[in-house]
Write a structure and sequence with these properties.
Elements: H1 6-17, H2 19-25, H3 32-37, H4 40-53, H5 58-71, H6 77-81, H7 85-90, H8 101-121, H9 124-130, H10 136-146, H11 154-162, H12 171-179, H13 190-207, H14 211-222
Helix pairs in contact: 1-2, 1-14, 4-5, 4-8, 4-11, 8-9, 12-14
Length: 224
């Protein structure tokens, strides 16, 4: 299987959308210094926002988020980790919230996991900043293993939310990967994800573009 040059993928995306319009859509990943400077409570808040958004309309979750910030003490990890079962159970009666027990419980579980990583690396942001982009699928796997409810696309989506450079395997990106010779079928396991990572590494070296740009341009090459 021959992987297409990224220059050809970019040309196709520009033909479909126009170079200026495509450029305007590209996100800006945060620098390593910016990731390290982000407080741990903002990482926990965004992680949980992503978890609660899964399967729901994002605007509805966003509208409720001020109430989540209130009941979870601004997502200060140590305060959240100290919440008792009784504290969490009381939240099931709060109509301002999304009353999903598994997701509510994940806030405390994930606060504890985040604190463990922060203690070992000098901050959760430092851990993210130090993770190499040429193994971003390894970071997805680490998030899924160490945090509750962070499997599937939740890990990549969370990384995009907080500014860590990543690609996301949306249906359009997956279709483009297949069309441009990177994969033969949608990725289903670690070996498949490694194959996808290999393609992105080749394109990143060729183009000098961050992963989030490559991802969006790939999607734009196949969708209108």
């Amino acid at each position: 299987m021959t992987i297409a040059r990224f220059a050809d993928i970019l040309d196709r995306a520009c033909v479909r959308h126009g170079a200026a319009a495509l450029e305007a859509r590209l996100p800006t990943p945060k620098s390593a210094d910016e990731l390290r400077a982000t407080p741990d409570d903002r990482y926990l808040s965004n992680m949980e926002r992503r978890i609660f958004q899964a399967g729901l309309k994002h605007s509805m979750v966003d509208a409720k988020w001020p109430a989540f910030e209130e009941v979870f003490h601004g997502f200060a990890p140590r305060r959240v980790r100290a919440m008792s079962d009784e504290d969490l159970e009381k939240l099931l009666a709060d109509a301002r919230l999304i009353r999903h027990w598994g997701k509510l419980k994940s806030v405390r579980d994930n606060a504890a996991a985040l604190l463990d990583i922060a203690a070992a690396h000098g901050g959760f942001g430092a851990w993210l900043a130090g993770w190499p982009g040429d193994d971003i699928v390894g970071l997805w796997e680490a998030l899924a293993q160490r945090f509750s409810q962070m499997g599937g696309n939740s890990g990549p989506s969370f990384l995009r939310m907080v500014g860590k450079d990543t690609f996301i395997l949306t249906p359009a990106v997956t279709a483009a990967l297949k069309q441009w010779g990177a994969i033969a079928a949608p990725p289903k396991n670690r070996k498949d994800r490694a194959q996808v990572q290999h393609a992105f590494n080749i394109w990143a070296e060729e183009s000098g573009q961050p992963l989030c740009h490559l991802s969006l341009i790939l999607a734009a090459s196949v969708e209108d």
